Predict the 3D structure of the following.
Amino acid sequence: MATLRELKGRIGSVASSEKITGAMKMISSAKMHKAEGVLRRLQPFRGCVRTVIGNLLSSDASVSSPLTEVRTSVGRVAVVVFGSDDGLCGAYNVNIFKSMLATLGRIRQECGEAVDFDILPVGRKMRRAVEKIAASDSRITLVDTTDVDSKSDGEKVKAFAMKLQSRFLAGEVDRVLLQYMHFHSAGKQVAVCDDYLPVSPQALADNTGADVRQDRPYLFEPDAATIFGTVLPMYLLSVMQEAFAENRASEQAARVMAMQSANDNAHKLLEQLQLEYNKLRQQGITTELLDIVGGQVRD
């Protein structure tokens, strides 16, 4: 049985842990709200780009781009999988990794077992996980992505998006997928896999602005094809920026939940230790009183 001194030390240690997890929860909550703000600020840019694309698609102009060309034979697929650079976020990275494995299996069913994969992990934790499967599967190649991480700024995200577009246009990859955690709310994040390249007409039609008018005549300057070729990379950039922002918000939301769980567990353990300490202390007092009373009787 533990002594009073040992219990007192354990109580102090658990109490300190409770304070630390509470503070970390507050910090993660502030970061999550900041990431939510970034998501909201992206909406005007994304809305303008999608409105322009919607106007082009709703006109009688013929527009096309190499970024929308679907390859008849898919031999190599690039998968950008988003994770975290830091720990203490529960099963966040594990859930994304499991979803990525399911995506690889689905693509193999669609394109055949001979398809090759280029995995581009974003985040140190996800990079370590992908290294293990890349070492055991010759069809999976780990691509160096040390130039970006889960906290990358706008310029790095833009360079990363342009790099993916260049690889697709050069024929190095036939498809590009984005695997990340979609942020619904502070208590709900869902793993999703979006097609990034080639851009499907359905994706453009689903994301056009609500103010697009089908009966409005358009005059394009210089021409619709040039405008479409300029705006489409902007659309892809907005999609990539949104994926990075959703990943940051989801990571912090998962960390808030993990710290809340750790704080609750520490509080329960503290109550149990305090109860055990009080019982042991009361037992000691009772024993001393009995010794005193027994000594008086003998006297």
Notes: Residues 208-213 have pLDDT under 50 and may be disordered. The chain has one domain: 31-256. Residues 31-256 form a domain with the Pyruvate Kinase; Chain: A, domain 1 fold (CATH 3.40.1380.10). DSSP finds six helices and five strands in the chain.
